[in-house]
């Protein structure tokens, strides 16, 4: 974690359920009536803002202020989507310093990073998920990344969307049918991997990740120095 990163926090709805579950368990609600699939996110292929990498991190039941407090962030100013990611090159700062944006929607906060990996770093997401649930979808410039489901400091699911055949986490076997259902491509098509990961996040949050959702929010631009 050396350089730039914008983190956006836009809150979303309740966590979606998992295929094959017959009873409701803590942290695993029943399935949403509208189950997202990879094809719902084909818009991303035409979006230039995030082509060089991104990280979206959903945190449930925390306000942006509470998220910033847990990250020990310094709020700088309010910015629009284009101010946050318009350059497509992240936000440079001192070594180990990240610049994050925060917005709110329903019961979730969403952390969005431009070419960042803060939301894919265990030392950050495990304490951030304390007492709640966190969903993170990160992709690097090389096409590989990390998808995480974390509950109260415990990793439930962990895998690279570009290599969905290898998964880990305490509920990885239970969540495997849901991963398969969203439409990951066994041929390792990077475009499909991104779309399927967006769909998987939508199933867990019940919040569709749309261009409208991202572009209509005002973000709190904040400086974060993990471990600093």
Give the spatial strand order of the biggest sheet: 4-5-1-6-7-8-9
Number of separate helices: 6
Ranges with pLDDT <50 over ≥5 residues? 1-33
How far is the N terminus from the C terminus? Answer: 12 Å
Q: Assign a percent range to the helix content.
A: 10-25%
Main beta-sheet annotation: 7 strands, antiparallel
Radius of gyration: 16 Å
Overall SS class: alpha+beta
Strand content: 15-25%
Order of helices and strands: EHEHEEEHEEEEHHHE
Mean pLDDT: 81
Spatial shape? globular
Give a count of the beta strands, DSSP E runs of length 2 or more. Answer: 10
Any overview of this molecule?
The protein has 228 residues and is of the alpha+beta class. Helices cover 23% and strands 23% of the residues. It has 6 helices and 10 strands; from the N terminus they run βαβαβββαββββαααβ. It has helices at residues 64-71, 81-85, 122-128, 172-182, 190-205, 211-215; strands at residues 54-60, 74-79, 98-100, 104-105, 108-114, 133-139, 145-151, 154-159, 167-168, 219-224. The strands form 2 sheets. It has a 7-stranded antiparallel beta sheet with strand order 4-5-1-6-7-8-9, sandwiched between helices. Strands 2-10-3 form a 3-stranded antiparallel beta sheet. Strand 6 and strand 7 form a beta hairpin. Mean pLDDT is 81; it is low at 1-33.
């Amino acid at each position: 974690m050396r350089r730039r990163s914008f983190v956006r926090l836009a809150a979303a709805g309740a966590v979606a359920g998992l295929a094959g579950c017959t009873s409701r368990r803590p942290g695993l609600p029943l399935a949403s009536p509208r189950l997202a699939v990879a094809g719902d996110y084909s818009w991303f292929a035409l979006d230039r803002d995030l082509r060089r990498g991104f990280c979206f991190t959903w945190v449930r039941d925390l306000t942006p202020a509470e998220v910033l407090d847990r990250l020990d962030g310094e709020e700088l100013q309010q910015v629009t989507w284009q101010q946050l990611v318009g350059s497509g090159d992240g936000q440079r700062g001192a070594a180990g310093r990240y610049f994050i944006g925060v917005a709110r929607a329903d019961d979730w906060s969403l952390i969005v990073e431009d070419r960042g990996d803060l939301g894919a770093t265990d030392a950050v997401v495990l304490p951030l998920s304390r007492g709640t649930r966190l969903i993170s979808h990160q992709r690097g410039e090389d096409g590989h990344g990390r998808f995480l489901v974390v509950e109260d400091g415990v990793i439930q699911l962990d895998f690279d969307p570009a290599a969905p055949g290898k998964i880990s986490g305490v509920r990885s076997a239970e969540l495997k049918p849901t991963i398969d259902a969203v439409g990951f491509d066994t041929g390792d098509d990077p475009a499909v991997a991104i779309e399927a990961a967006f769909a998987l996040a939508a199933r867990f949050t019940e919040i569709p990740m749309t261009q409208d959702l991202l572009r209509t929010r005002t973000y709190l631009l904040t400086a974060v120095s993990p471990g600093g």
